Structure formats: structure tokens, C-alpha cells
Amino acid sequence: MNTPFHPVPRICPRPSGKIRQPSPAPPWTLPAATGSSHAPSRNVECFACRRRTAVPVTAVSARCSHCSAYIKLDDITLHSRTHRTKVQTCGCVTVQANADLKGLHIECRDLILNGKASGDLLCSGVCKIKADQHISGTLRARRLTVEKKTAVLVTGGVHVENAWIQGTLEGALTAEGTVTIHRHAKFLGDITARRLVIEEGGIHQGSLTRLS
Q: What residues in the chain have per-residue pLDDT under 50?
């Protein structure tokens, strides 16, 4: 009489077979996002309602979150053949060296004058003047820089937070902060400012009114 066969299961301390390791991610795969998923943003001022709204730093245009007006954000270059007289952008405006533009109305973040531009100029950032100018209008900026060997005449007045004069500037200047007249630089006109610094060799011809 045959004895019944009862198989006994075999138990191994390690799993049999080869365990496949996960393949590495390809080099073009972007790393996983960490922290907040929101893109970096900056605040810009709407030209229509004058209220500030947040926009992505990489955007070239946007809509105001308050009045839905269109806001231009890209940089603009004005050359000698430019026919436009009104420019509004939250980017940088550059006037080329061969340009001689008149009757302008510019509102921008930063303004660089390599050529001549006359009119009302308003920039919320830095205004750099690198060429001789006769500006028949007002000039407003957070910081004004008149570079060396540059003569600038502003008939409508200059309103800034701080001014760095390395060339010659003529007009009426109002500064909420400091006006610095560098060595061999010259300012011709009345100054209203919180602080005036004149380096040795600098010249100021006009009155001074100090803000408290």
C-alpha cells in the first residue's frame, strides 16, 4: 500500500528571483517642485487707475486686477525713425544714440537716454542721462544720474528721490533724499532737498532749501 504524499512548502529567508531597481529619471526631467507652486511675481502700477497689481516677473503684458486695463510690461527701444510720442510700459525705455525725439510723454520703470528726448518723462526707477539734452517738460524719477561730460537743461523742473550729478544739470531740482554733485560736476539752479553733498571741485550756482 502506497503512502500518501504531502508536499511541505519551502520557506526561504530571502525572496527568490531578481528584484528590478527603478530606472533613473532622464536628464531632461524637471526636478519636483518644492514649497509654494506659485510663480514669482512683482507689483506694477496701472496707468489707468494708478493702483498696484501683482503680475508674474516673466510676463510681457497683463490686466489690472482692479480695473481690467491693459498693462504693457516689456522693454521698448526708441530710434530715430520712431513716430510714436506716447509710451507707457512697466519695463525699460531706451532712446538710441542717433535719436532726436520731441513732444514725448514717457511713463516707464527705467529710462536710459543715449540720444535726445524732449517732453514729459516719468520713470518709477532709475533715469540715466548719457547724452546732452534740452528737455522741454518735466523729469520725474526715483533716482537720476547725469553722467560725465553731459550737459542737461530741464525747463519744467526735476523731481526725484536722489540725484547723482557727474556732468552739468540746469533747472529747478526737488529731491526727497540726497543730491550729490560730484567732482568737476556742476548744477545751475535752485535746489530743494533733504541733503546736499558737493564734492571738492563740484559747483552749485543757485539757492538751497533744505527739507525737514
A: none
